[in-house]
UniProtKB/TrEMBL annotation:
Pfam families on file: FAD-oxidase_C (PF02913), FAD_binding_4 (PF01565)
Organism: Dokdonella koreensis DS-123
Domain FAD-binding PCMH-type stretches: 36-215
UniProt keyword list: FAD, Flavoprotein, Oxidoreductase
Family: Belongs to the FAD-binding oxidoreductase/transferase type 4 family.
Record-given protein name: FAD linked oxidase domain protein
Any one of the GO BP annotations: respiratory electron transport chain
Cofactor(s) required for function per UniProt: FAD
GO molecular function terms listed in the Swiss-Prot or TrEMBL record: FAD binding; oxidoreductase activity
Length: 463
């Protein structure tokens, strides 16, 4: 791209923050994946919707691809700019614009970090319930782009359930105001939901109206040690029947090993192969007694070997750290990640098949897995041996991912539960979506982004 093209952009938008600093190019040109060398043309940081529209129209005229950028906490390469694209960072569009007490909604800009959104809701005595460990750095625009889930999907669902309306700029520079906060709206296709989870390939999210809800009652956290994988579903079943669950998470002994090495405190004297973290309503003595009864029932049946129930907010946070600290504790190892989903009823059979694949294909690798049993989402992190070259490691991991994809296809699962397809999982999309579905998706993209400039190469290749 000749520098004259950037000069045209800078001249047409004199207030636009535009950078070609090498440090900025590297920083904004990648997400948490490290498999591609960032090589963007420049970084644009618009301050309002008008600047975003002007950037898109410039890109059309100059035939420059655009990569939207939020907190760049993604794990599938969805925010990678490796081929001379202009990165459109929304970090300056980070404000809360409006609170509507009657509708109980907040209108926000896309660059607002999730944690600040949660704090804004709390300031009005309400809750924005979608939550995960990256809350301090991920943004609501990125959450919408990937339909992010997190740790409380079992009660509140994914991001999709909480978006009352969204404004997007399409690949032609048009501004679409989708749904406008309505609860009931049967006037044709709901294009709002089309945009949610589209990974910036159909439009750039420039504003969102999010729904809020009442804060949950007082809760407690229970940590359980399990002697075997088969006990997971037994424990989940009894917890779901007898407790008002807000979250139900599991992790393995290898996950605990890394979190402890990262500074967490050991919960029990003896190590177990599996652990469960369950958060449940505990606003009165009856709910607290129910949790103790659940623990005793599980202990009696041999489904658990040890357990702890939080008695304070500090203890609850310490127990949650054992689960939420896993990703950070593994970051230095540059793990290869899988993020997969199956129906809850298919979890036992799938986990046995998955464990057999790992034992056969990863005999010398440290495989750390954990996930959201309550919504059928499993996270797999494979750590690279120090003496293995990066290319050989990726090749071996992708061989196993193909096997996982085939197993998922057989049981009707998905290769991406909540991280998106991006670049990393593109070759496995056909295991989750039929050829007819993929062609429909391509057709939708051709309408909304006829020049193919919005996050090209992500999700699928366009002919």
């Amino acid at each position: 791209m000749p520098s004259s093209a950037l000069a045209v952009l800078a001249g047409s938008l004199p207030q636009l923050a535009l950078s070609t600093d090498p440090g900025d190019l590297e920083h904004y040109g990648r997400d948490w994946t490290r498999r591609w060398t960032p090589a963007p043309l420049a970084i644009a940081r618009p301050a309002d919707i008008g600047e975003v529209q002007a950037i898109v129209r410039w890109a059309l005229a100059e035939r420059v691809a655009l990569v939207p950028s939020g907190g760049r906490t993604g794990l599938s390469g969805g925010a990678v700019a490796a081929h001379g694209e202009l990165v459109v960072s929304f970090e300056r569009m980070n404000r809360v614009l409006d609170f509507d007490p009657a509708d109980r909604t907040l209108t926000v800009q896309p660059g607002l970090p999730l944690e600040r959104l949660q704090q804004a809701a709390a300031g009005h005595g309400l809750l924005y319930p979608v939550d995960f460990a990256a809350r301090g750095s991920c943004t609501i625009g990125g959450n919408i782009a990937t339909n992010a889930g997190g740790i409380r999907v079992i009660r509140y669902g994914n991001t999709r359930e909480w978006i009352a309306g969204v404004k997007v700029v399409t690949g032609t520079g048009e501004l679409l105001d989708l749904n406008r906060g309505l609860i009931k709206n049967s006037s044709g296709y709901d294009l709002r939901h089309l945009m949610i989870g589209s990974e910036g390939t159909l439009g750039l999210v420039v504003e969102a109206r999010v729904r809020l809800t009442d804060p949950p009652p007082a809760s407690s956290v229970m940590l359980l040690a399990l002697p075997a994988m088969d006990a997971l579903m037994q424990v989940f079943d009894v917890c779901r029947r007898r407790l008002a669950l807000g979250a139900f998470e599991f992790f393995t002994d290898r996950a605990l090993h890394h979190v402890l090495a990262h500074g967490a405190q050991r919960p029990f004297e003896e190590t177990a192969p599996f652990y469960v973290v369950a958060e449940f309503d505990a606003a009165d003595e009856a709910q607290q007694a129910a949790a103790l009864a659940v623990f005793e029932q599980c202990l009696e049946h041999g489904w658990v070997t040890d357990g702890a129930i939080s008695q304070s907010a500090a203890q609850a946070a310490a127990l949650w750290r054992l689960r939420e600290g896993i990703t950070e504790s593994l970051a230095a190892h540059r793990p290869y990640k899988n993020d997969i989903a199956v129906r809850i009823g298919a979890i036992p059979a799938f986990m046995h098949q998955m464990q057999a694949i790992f034992a056969r294909e990863y005999p010398a690798f440290d495989v750390v897995w954990f996930g959201h049993i309550g919504d059928g989402n499993l996270h797999i992190n494979v750590l690279k041996p120090a003496d293995l070259a990066d290319a050989a490691f990726i090749e071996q991991c992708e061989h196993v991912t193909r096997l996982l994809s085939e197993t998922l296809q057989a049981c009707g699962g998905s290769i991406s539960a909540e991280h998106g397809i991006g670049l990393v999982k593109k070759k496995y999309l056909a295991g989750t979506r039929s050829p007819a579905e993929i062609e429909v998706m391509r057709g939708i993209k051709r309408v909304l982004d006829p020049a193919g400039l919005l996050n090209p190469g992500k999700v699928f290749d366009t002919p």
